[in-house]
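Quick start: what a row looks like.
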Amino acid sequence: MAQQSYQKFDGSAVTESILQESSQLFNENYGVWSEQAAGLIGKFARAGKLALTGIVCLPKITIGSHIRLSKGKLRAEYLPDDTTCSYVRVTVDGRLAGNAFACRWTYDNKTVCWITQLVVHQEYRERGIAQILLLNLKNADDDICGIMSSHPAACMAAAKAFGSKCIVNTYHSLNPKLNKKLNNLGHIITIKLEFIKDHAEEIMKASPINYVRDANFRGSLFNPEDASGLVSSVDTSFWVDHTLEALVRARELLDWPLGELHRGHEFLLITEVRRRPRSRPQLTSKPKDTSSTQDSA
């Protein structure tokens, strides 16, 4: 059985070698340029998310080529000075299989944990690794979690790791695999759109991350007259070629709350963090057994 190992670092403890591995993981697995990127590369290289996040921009790009991010830009944009940032990674048999970056700041006396990057190697997807990465990234005092992503799977992982507990009713008694998939996806339907509507602007204005702070809101959640099909999105001019198979699969089973996804846009998900309930001591009239046993592996 493959051995998974998760490690968490404060931003200041992330070494150059760790960033080099993270850069390679991103460059090979994050995404590729869309057809629209070729005609707009000059504009958004100067003013869009690419300039703000440090994505490597070339005068001419090849449609379908991998989007690249250098280790220097990773440190400058995802682990900036004078910010509270975290990094978590997972290795499988010593090989980097996924990682996540987050930045924290305060809004209304509450701690915001913003997922700035989440990447899982293509060979290790659909194994729950993204959710476990985020659970390892999560702090006990986090109050709010946010993410901007064009990947539906990233939004679903954040909803499950940070959001409200959801147990989907079992309709398929003869298909336990489908029931498991329903429960894995179901957390996204508990997202409170009103919370995003009421707090997104102020939360994101307080961010020390440029592209989060300067995001342009799009969708019917922010403009009731918007009939584009967008609900909770941001226009980042990030022309990644969307792979929406995960979104199609989710919509076959559940109501997807964040709306459509247009080219150059990303979904916006913000949720209050679910806290684990404290266990209550059990009252008993019998003496407590202080002996302990360990399960054999």
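That is the whole record. The first helix runs from residue 16 to 29. The radius of gyration is 20 Å.
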